[in-house]
Write a structure and sequence with these properties.
This protein is α+β, with helices and mostly antiparallel strands and 286 residues long. The chain is built from 8 helices and 8 strands, in the order αααααββββαββαββα. It has 3 domains: 98 residues, no CATH class; 43 residues, SH3 type barrels, CATH 2.30.30; 84 residues, Alpha-Beta Plaits (2-Layer Sandwich).
Length: 286
C-alpha cells in the first residue's frame, strides 16, 4: 500500500507527459547555443575591430540561453508546487553542500567573473605557469588557447583565490617588451637608436601609442652585457608572435650592418702606466 502511495506521489510530482518536451527543449537549447556561437564567430572574423566585443556578447548569450533552457525544462518536467519547491530547495542545498560544492563554487565564480570582469574573452592572460588567450567563459570553467595552440581548461573557482594577470583587458592592442643584449664594449647610443628605428618601422607596432627603449647592465649567459629592452604596443594581440619576430629580424639586421656585437667574455690587461687597456684592444694571453 505504501509503495503504491509513493508511486502515486511521484507521478504527481513528475510530469510524465512533459519529459519528452523538456528533452526537446534541452536539445533545442544546445542547437541554438551552437548556432549563435558559430554565427557570432563568423561576424567577429569579418569585422576584426569588433572581434573582442562580439566574443563577449557571445559569452553572455550562451550563459543566458543555458540558464533559460534549464529553467524551462525543469518547469515542463516537474509540478512546481510549494511542497516540491521546498523539497527541491532542501535537496539542492544538501547536494551543493556535500557532493557538488566544487561545481557550485565554479558556477558562482563564473557569475562573479562575468560581473566583476577581471578579464574578458579575447584577453591575453597569465595564470600560474599558463599564458594565452581567453576563448570562452563558461558556467564551470574558462578555456584558454596558449601560443602553442593548446587548449587549457581552468575551473572558474581557481580565479577567485589565485593571481591572474590580463595583458590587454578588453583592448585589441597590448604592451609588448622584447630584450636585446650587446657587449659592454659596444656603441650603446648607436644600438639604442637602431632598436628605436626598428620599433618605428615595425608594421605590427601600434603607432598611436608611445614606445621606449630602456638600457641597463645585466648578466646574459653568465656574461656581463648591456640589455636594451624595447617596449611598444602590438596593434592586435593576435599578432603577438609576428610582432616579436619582425622586430627581432629588424634589430639583428641593423646590428649586423653596424657591427654591434653580442656579449662576450672580455680579457683586459694593464699598460705600462697601470691603466686598463680597452677590451677591443686587449689580447689573449699566450
Amino acid at each position: 500500500m505504501n509503495g503504491t502511495t509513493q508511486d502515486a506521489n511521484l507521478f504527481e510530482v513528475i510530469r510524465v507527459g512533459g519529459l519528452a518536451t523538456a528533452l526537446l527543449v534541452l536539445v533545442g537549447t544546445y542547437v541554438l547555443v551552437r548556432f549563435i556561437t558559430r554565427a557570432l564567430h563568423g561576424v567577429g572574423a569579418r569585422w576584426g575591430d569588433k572581434r573582442l566585443l562580439i566574443n563577449q556578447i557571445a559569452t553572455l548569450m550562451r550563459f543566458s540561453i543555458w540558464l533559460v533552457g534549464l529553467g524551462v525544462a525543469l518547469a515542463l518536467s516537474v509540478n512546481l508546487t510549494r511542497e516540491v519547491l521546498i523539497a527541491l530547495g532542501g535537496t539542492a542545498a544538501v547536494t551543493i553542500g556535500f557532493a557538488l560544492k566544487d561545481l557550485a563554487a565554479s558556477i558562482l565564480a563564473g557569475v562573479i567573473i562575468i560581473v566583476d570582469r577581471p578579464f574578458q574573452v579575447g584577453d591575453r592572460v597569465s595564470f600560474g605557469t599558463v599564458y594565452g588567450e581567453i576563448t570562452a567563459i563558461g558556467l564551470r570553467s574558462v578555456r584558454m588557447l596558449t601560443l602553442d595552440d593548446n587548449v587549457v581548461t581552468i575551473p572558474n573557482n581557481k580565479f577567485l583565490t589565485d593571481v591572474v594577470t590580463s595583458g590587454n583587458w578588453g583592448a585589441l592592442d597590448m604592451m609588448m617588451q622584447v630584450d636585446f643584449f650587446i657587449g659592454v664594449d659596444q656603441d650603446i647610443v648607436l644600438a639604442e637608436r637602431l632598436v628605436g628605428d626598428a620599433l618605428t618601422s615595425c608594421r605590427f607596432a601600434y603607432a598611436k601609442k608611445p614606445w621606449d627603449v630602456f638600457v641597463n647592465q645585466a648578466l646574459h649567459d653568465n656574461v656581463a652585457a648591456i640589455r636594451l629592452r624595447a617596449r611598444a604596443h602590438v596593434v592586435d594581440v593576435k599578432y603577438e608572435r609576428e610582432f616579436e619576430s619582425d622586430l627581432t629580424r629588424r634589430v639583428m639586421a641593423a646590428f649586423q650592418k653596424h657591427r654591434i656585437l653580442p656579449p662576450a667574455l672580455l680579457h683586459r690587461r694593464l699598460d705600462a702606466s697601470g691603466l686598463a687597456v680597452p677590451a677591443s684592444s686587449a689580447t689573449l694571453p699566450s
